[in-house]
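Honest question from a wet-lab person: if I give you the sequences of every part of a complex, can you actually get the arrangement of the whole thing, not just the pieces? Trying it with mine:
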Amino acid sequence: MLTLRLAGIVTAILLLLSIPLAYWLSYAKTKFKPIVETLVSMPLVLPPTVLGFYLLVAFSPNNKFGVWLEEWFGLRLIFSFEGLVLASVIYSLPFMVQPIYSGFKNLPTNLKEAAYVLGSSNFKTLYKVLLPNIKPSILTGIVLTFAHTIGEFGVVLMIGGNIPDKTRVASIAIYDEVESLNYAAANTYSLILFSITFLVLLTVYLINGGYLTRYFNDKS
Amino acid sequence: MINLRFNKILKANGGIMHLDIDCAINKGDFVTIYGPSGAGKTTMLRIIAGLIQPESGTIEVEGKSWFDANKSINLKPQLRSTGLVFQDYALFPNMTVKKNIKYAQITNSNQDTFANVVELMNLNDFLDRNPSTLSGGQQQRVALARSIVSMPEILMLDEPMSALDMEMRLKIQDYLLKAHKSFNLTTILVSHDVGEIFKLSNKVFMLKDGKIEKQGSPGDVFAKKNNSGKFQFVGEVLNIVREDVIYILTILIGNNIVKVVADESIANDLNIGDKVMVSSKAFNPIIQKLV
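Yes, you can. This is the full assembly:
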């Protein structure tokens, strides 16, 4: 359950964060764009342990930033659920940004221009014209992020550790059970993760492929 | 009165072109911009709409400055009162026809305009349909309705008929002309079709390599010699047949096919597909009222 809660919160935060970011990446004309694009995609190739290590160092109560966080916000980000959320947001960022970004890119630019000429502000254009036309991309982003957060291991282990009911998510639990040669429990957890991931991805392909719409149309 | 005076360096097809426009358009004019591909026609419309910023110059519409490089005035597209019909219509796929048209309407404008425009474009039967379920001609009428419902000071159309067949073209031309007259619009059309230009516009700018090479009425711009013909139509040569000493030309005028006699000197100068002006001077035409 901890796993699903983590995945749900991370997905919600990333959705709010990624729409403006992807919008900016698609339409801004600045020299910094390649740098931001690189940073967004880094978690795709970077070993999770690297990210986890730096976050661990940054948030440690042994350095000034960690102390400042704890004094000002009462946040202790290492070995805590909040820390897991933050690390997962960074780690799953490309899985939300990339689909939305390519959704924007593939929209004909004249839809945006038509809305501008008709007097729509940037925000109204985004909200009324652009987003409704990239629904499949947004859905893909949501599902990939959710599934990916469920499945992450390295970052969680580095920054969250293995504290029951606080940071022990499913993937960690599996590792833990295998370590203690408890294969039956490990198998149960694995099977659940396997099924959830399969179902989640199947849903995306069904919806984006239009199978569901066709199925319901045929029935009515 | 619309005064356009602007410059823009365009980099296209590996070359550099200097768009240099200086012209005036009167309120109520129906202007056509004519010229070869890559002459800067679309760019000119986009600059007026505010989608592209020129490097220097001024755009002044009815005494208001939309763009002035020296005073750093550059109104956003949202603040310019224009309607722009795109080549591929750019209808919003997520909205019905009704919502597409309503989208353009400024909140406080009256309901009558919407009803009038829908009536004029004959769209009453399609209001709840999605754009993707409509034919090209129907989509074009929706795009046109959407562009005029906010009563823009300038209506601009970028080759709106290029994707339609001849019959549909003629119909849309009628709709366009009707809208232009009923709502007293100032219209700028980009078109390649000389017949269309004669039918619709009272002024032509011939654009070549970014500059207005010729301007005036369609007759002035397209006819080589001065011709005071009483009747004149523009058509396309479909066929040239020699019969003894004369030639018979088959010419498509609008959607009518007519046969015209021509002598050798004219026939030799023509090829199938050429645009020609057919005029008659000395004869009085017979007019019969159609029931």
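Two things worth pointing out. Chain A has a mean pLDDT of 87. Chain A touches chain B at residues 108, 110-111, 113-121, 128-129, 132-133 (CB under 8 Å).
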